[in-house]
């Protein structure tokens, strides 16, 4: 019996489960009987992409990633695909029903702060200069999002609200729902959970809040320095870059 892939490490499982809420997917493709895990990111997020690939070595073949042609937004993409494994099929059975990802507490309860940081870095965004946050959960039906909101509140004490958005896709206006963190205090509470697990410096912009008040700014930067594995010099470098981008954006609107 080949025992090379006889189990998934906790870390691998945490990354996969967090990714399923974000940019990852589990699928059973013909003619294979077992599931594969896949995801993709823009080349602009290559540090984060290759960090993920490294965490998933135990389910990866020799040629597990490749570059894809630019997508509809003109960006070159990096794509990862795992081996087809029985252990991934077990996760597939846990998280899917009728070939669709279904949100259930029985597998949400297996998420860890590492899973949450993967979800946030995949599909979370800071809004309003960092005064609010949003999970882009467009693909999940409303009932699933209610379960997610209840889970975040009960397990992580993170208060989120479900709000409808209208977006035009393929020329047709459609309604979707997203999870919103609507206050600065609630946002900071959630970010403090995931700060110790931010894996690469290039993703710090997703946790750096901007303040006009210099004392408030210093207070948050000190929090990021204390909780993340990165030096103050590195964090302040990304703070300066983010402020410059924000100023350019303000001039455009």
Please supply descriptive tags for the structure shown above.
253 residues, alpha+beta, Endonuclease I-creI, 2 domains, 4-stranded antiparallel sheet, 9 helices, 10 strands, 20% strand, globular
Textual characterization of the structure:
There is one protein chain. The protein is an alpha+beta fold. It has 2 domains: 10-101, Roll (Endonuclease I-creI), CATH 3.10.28; 113-252, Endonuclease I-creI (Roll), CATH 3.10.28. Helices cover 42% and strands 20% of the residues. It is built from 9 helices and 10 strands. Strands 1-2-4-3 form a 4-stranded antiparallel sheet. Strands 7-8-10-9 form a 4-stranded antiparallel sheet. Strands 5-6 form a two-stranded antiparallel sheet. Helix 1 (10-20) packs parallel to helix 5 (113-123) and helix 8 packs across helix 9.
Q: Distance between termini?
A: 62 Å
Largest sheet: number of strands, sense, barrel closure: 4 strands, antiparallel
Mean pLDDT: 93
**Total DSSP E strands:** 10
Pfam families: LAGLIDADG_2
Domain Homing endonuclease LAGLIDADG: 14-183
InterPro entries: Homing_endonucl, LAGLIDADG_dom
GO molecular function: endonuclease activity
Précis, in short:
This protein is an alpha+beta fold. 42% of the residues lie in helices and 20% in strands.
């Amino acid at each position: 019996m080949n025992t090379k892939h006889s189990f998934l490490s906790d870390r691998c499982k945490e990354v996969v489960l967090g990714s399923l809420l974000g940019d990852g997917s589990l699928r059973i493709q013909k003619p294979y009987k077992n599931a594969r895990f896949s995801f993709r990111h823009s080349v602009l997020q290559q540090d984060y992409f290759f960090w993920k690939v490294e965490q998933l070595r135990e389910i990866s073949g020799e040629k597990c990633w490749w570059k894809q042609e630019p997508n509809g937004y003109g960006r070159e993409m990096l794509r990862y695909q795992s081996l087809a494994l029985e252990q991934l099929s077990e996760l597939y059975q846990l998280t899917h029903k009728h070939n669709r990802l279904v949100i259930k507490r029985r597998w949400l309860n297996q998420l860890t702060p590492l899973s949450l940081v993967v979800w946030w870095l995949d599909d979370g965004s800071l809004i309003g200069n960092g005064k609010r946050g949003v999970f882009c959960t467009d693909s999940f039906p409303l009932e699933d999002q209610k379960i997610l909101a209840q889970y975040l509140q009960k397990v992580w004490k993170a208060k989120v609200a479900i709000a409808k958005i209208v977006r035009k896709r393929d020329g047709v206006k459609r309604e979707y729902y997203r999870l919103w963190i609507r206050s600065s205090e609630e946002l900071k509470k959630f970010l403090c959970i995931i700060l110790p697990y931010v894996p690469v410096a290039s993703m710090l912009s997703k946790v750096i809040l901007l303040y006009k008040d210099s004392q408030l700014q210093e207070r948050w930067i000190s929090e990021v320095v204390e909780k993340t594995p990165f030096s103050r010099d590195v964090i302040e470098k990304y703070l300066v870059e983010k402020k410059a981008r924000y100023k350019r954006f303000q001039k455009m609107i």
